[in-house]
Each structure stands twice: as C-alpha cells, then as structure tokens.
Amino acid sequence: MSPAGHSSRRFAARAITLLEIRAVAISLFYAIGTLIGGVGAPALFGYLIGTGSRGAVAWGYTASALLLILAALTEAWLGVAAEGKSLESISTPLSAAEENQAA
After folding, report:
1. Which residues contact 44 (CB under 8 A, 6 or more apart)?
2. What's the pLDDT score for residue 43?
C-alpha cells in the first residue's frame, strides 16, 4: 500500500472520530438538560408547593419565566434560521472542513 493511501485512511478515521466526539458531546448536554428540566423542576416546584407559601410558588414561577426569557434572548442572538433546510446547507460538515485543510 502506498504511503498516501495509508495517510488518507488515517485522516478519514480522525475525521470520523471528531464527528463521533461531537455527537457524544451533544447527546450528553441534551441528557443533562433533560435531567435538570425533567427531574429537577418538578422536584423544586413540589418542594415550593409543600412549603404552603404562595409567595414561594410565585417566586418559582417568576424564576422560571426569567429563565425562559433568557433562553429566548439567547436563541435570538445566537440562533440560525434553519427551518426547512438541510443540515449541510446550514453548516459545512466537519469532515468536509477537514478535507479542505488537508488539500
């Protein structure tokens, strides 16, 4: 096998590994967010309701509303118009960027 063939296989393996690491990172952050929102929020509101204080529950709802507003502002600032578009038209795949650098 030629050295060039060996090099391209190593490059392809490295590009695939980078994509896999990215996919694992995205799924990990999604799982953590789901855990916090799906388990933490009901537990917190259950505790607030259990206190018997209407003020505590109101502050809980206020804090939730502020977090949602912060999320909306973050999306407006960093978001990308992606509706109805393929992923490749929104962002160049990492594997394609790696190939361009090697050339």
Report:
1. 60
2. 93
